[in-house]
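ok new one. same drill as before - structure tokens go in, u give me an amino acid for every spot. 329 of them this time. try not to just spam alanines like last time pls lmao
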């Protein structure tokens, strides 16, 4: 054997970090669910007992969790006082739901996606798909919480204004269809920002549409937006000024068919806005941490979702702009 010991140690180090990260994903979700990060942010430096009391949890569990968090750099430990706290950056990413860099939603989604592993392993042999609707519902909420902060930070402030003439039309009163809307995060943000326009949210998953309706009611815009179960290839209505697809075109079995339907349902000078995960056009452009995360999500969720539907084009979540352009034109 001609093992290079430095390269071997680097490989083992990589594996060790990922081994820890696999457990860490579950611990982030537990901390998020129980309000441990928010309790740390609100209460300043605390002992495990103090945090447990504040959050209605048990000290022994909280102490172990805190040590894992501190070892991973998600919590700060002060040896002198034996107290744990969050730095400003840790609090911004872990304890603030409205921060554009809020991380726990991503972990919630990733963890939920892993529950499909036994079925997916079999699907690798058969080529069968696993539909979006067949996942643990935590995936739907996790996805909403992962994407919503980015939409809240960018959609109204920069994405819509960057489309020719769209901001002006929305201000005057336009017809909007948000397709593959999931829990309606993007739809509700647009409804709030442009009150003179009318909105339809469509998704093929009935459970998501039900939740979207509840979200709209809670946001006080239930009378100005309608959510209906419909596929991207046959959603109702026409003459839309704006059709939006947020992180869903690549999940569809027939994105070419969806594109044709969008074309038919747009007004002559209407706009189609497609939001997709950023990717380079070649595999080698995506061999980086973002590519890793999205190829991973794509293997567990997006590719099987597309394969479960008609045509099953399976674009994947890292298709790249050139491939997307080919599909939509
Ligand atoms: C990754 S989620 C994104 C949800 C939402 N747009 C967001 O950004 O939070 C993908 C969504 O596409 C929906 N979807 C998948 N295939 C579809 C199809 N053929 N027609 C309509 N919706 C579809 C799924 O139900 C899911 O809600």
């Amino acid at each position: 054997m001609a093992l290079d010991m430095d390269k071997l140690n680097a490989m083992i180090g990589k594996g060790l970090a990922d081994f820890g990260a696999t457990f860490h994903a579950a611990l982030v979700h537990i901390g998020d669910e129980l309000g441990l990060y928010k309790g740390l942010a609100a209460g300043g430096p605390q002992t495990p007992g103090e945090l447990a009391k504040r959050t209605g949890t048990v000290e022994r569990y909280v102490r172990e969790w805190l040590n894992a968090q501190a070892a991973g750099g998600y919590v700060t430990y002060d040896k002198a006082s034996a107290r744990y706290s969050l730095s400003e950056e840790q609090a911004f990413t872990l304890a603030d739901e409205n921060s554009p860099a809020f991380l726990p939603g991503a972990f919630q989604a990733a963890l939920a996606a892993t529950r499909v592993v036994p079925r997916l392993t079999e699907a690798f042999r058969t080529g069968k798909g696993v539909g979006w609707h067949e996942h643990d519902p935590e995936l739907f909420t996790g996805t909403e919480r992962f994407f919503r902060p980015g939409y809240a930070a960018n959609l109204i402030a920069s994405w819509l204004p960057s489309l020719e003439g769209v901001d002006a039309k929305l201000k005057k009163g336009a017809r909007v269809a948000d397709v593959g809307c999931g829990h309606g995060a993007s739809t509700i943000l647009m409804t709030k920002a442009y009150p003179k326009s009318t909105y339809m949210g469509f998704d093929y998953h009935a459970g998501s549409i039900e939740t979207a309706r509840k979200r709209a009611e809670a946001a006080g815009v239930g009378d100005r937006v309608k959510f209906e179960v419909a596929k991207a290839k046959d959603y109702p209505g026409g003459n839309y000024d704006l059709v939006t697809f947020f992180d869903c075109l690549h999940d569809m079995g027939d994105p070419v068919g969806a594109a044709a339907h969008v074309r038919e349902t747009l007004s002559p000078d209407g706009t189609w806005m497609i939001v997709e995960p950023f990717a380079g056009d070649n595999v080698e452009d995506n061999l980086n941490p973002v590519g890793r995360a999205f190829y991973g999500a794509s293997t567990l969720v997006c590719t099987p979702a597309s394969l479960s539907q008609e045509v099953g084009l399976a674009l994947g979540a890292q298709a790249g702009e050139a491939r997307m352009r080919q599909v939509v034109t």
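The chain has a mean pLDDT of 97. and btw Residues 132, 143-144, 147, 180-182, 185-186, 203-205, 208, 231-232, 246-248, 251-252, 305, 309 surround S-adenosylmethionine (CB under 6 Å).
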